[in-house]
Amino acid sequence: MERVNYTLLTEFILMGIPYPLRLKTFLFTFFLLIYILTQLGNLLILITVWADPQLHARPMYTFLGVLSIIDMGISCITVPRFMMNFILGIIPIPFSGCVAQLYFYHFLGSTQCFLYTLMAYDRYLAICWPLNYPVLMTAKLSTLLVAGAWVAGSFHGALQAILTFRLPYCGPNQVDYFFCDIPAVLRLACADTTVNELVTFVDIGVVVVSCFFLILLSYIQIIRAILRIRTADGRRRAFSTCGAHVTVVTVYYVPCAFIYLRPEANSPLDGAAALFPTAITPFLNPLIYTLRNQEVKMALKRMLGGPRTKSEI
To answer: Rounded to an integer, what distance in angstroms lies between the CA atom of residue 199 and that of residue 193?
Structure first.
């Protein structure tokens, strides 16, 4: 029986996304600034939630602290190597590095999907069942829910990594993307990828669609409850609390659906769309959750030793 003779790849070349060469210095500076602000902003939220007893004891801010950890991780996985292409040129990534990048991106990304759902459920209980909220959402329950999100995300990431890299890769090795992601890597496989594409579509589709549907259902109930609030100030505060979460969910889910939930995910716009969940959303989260959240701003004042207002005394 004749054996197929091929050499398996030991590295991949991430081609990045197309850009005018005259803008490479500007783009490097822009994404470097985005990366630094993302890390500092999320670290500041994490420290604030952990250090302030009033926030640390509340499940809503436990979820926010975990979200900051995830945002910092996703940004670290993708943005630094992406920035290197602007200054150092295209640098190969080892095969094992590509596997790790794909695993951790989908691990953290799916965990973030689950966490957004938990945050919507938390807001639903707080607004629709305010008197029973301390009983329904205890610190122990919120810890168990977060742990479950981490475990489910880890399983999802491992499944996608195993399915993707069980296939042989024998050349070419140029990934037409700025990080190792499933659609771009599968195009280089030296085998039939039909099963992989189907499983990826179904698996990611179940995670994204189910989480989005649960979030949508929660907010339908939340809006109904808010409209029953008699005072205009009460309605404004409730909408303000939920508006930040709705904004972040929209910015995160729409690009993900565009990338993964199409029959043939091979569009030049995929790279631009992927910048939202990898770079833009982690950058926006600290801004949205601090600028629109009065309790976080007051906690920052207390931590930095700022003057206390009457409402804080």
So the answer is: 10
CATH class of 11-307: mainly alpha
Tokens of 266: 């091979």
Residue 310 has pLDDT above 60, yes or no: no
Q: Does 135 score more than 50 pLDDT?
A: yes
pLDDT at 284: 87
174 phi/psi in degrees, rounded to 5: -90, 110
Nearest to 139 by CA among 195, 63, 212: 63
Nearest partner of 77 among 234, 278, 212, judged by Cα = 278
* Interval 250-269: pLDDT, tens: 888 888 877 877 766 566 67
Phi-psi region of 141 (alpha: psi -120 to 50; beta: other; left: phi over 0): alpha
CA-based torsion, 287, 291, 296, 302: positive or negative? positive
Range of lowest pLDDT (212-226, 243-257, 277-291): 243-257
Amino acid of residue 312: E
pTM over 0.90: no
Question: What's the pLDDT at 4?
Answer: 47
Residue in 195, 169, 194, 191 with CA at minimum distance from that of residue 180: 169
34-47 pLDDT, tens digit each: 999 999 999 988 88
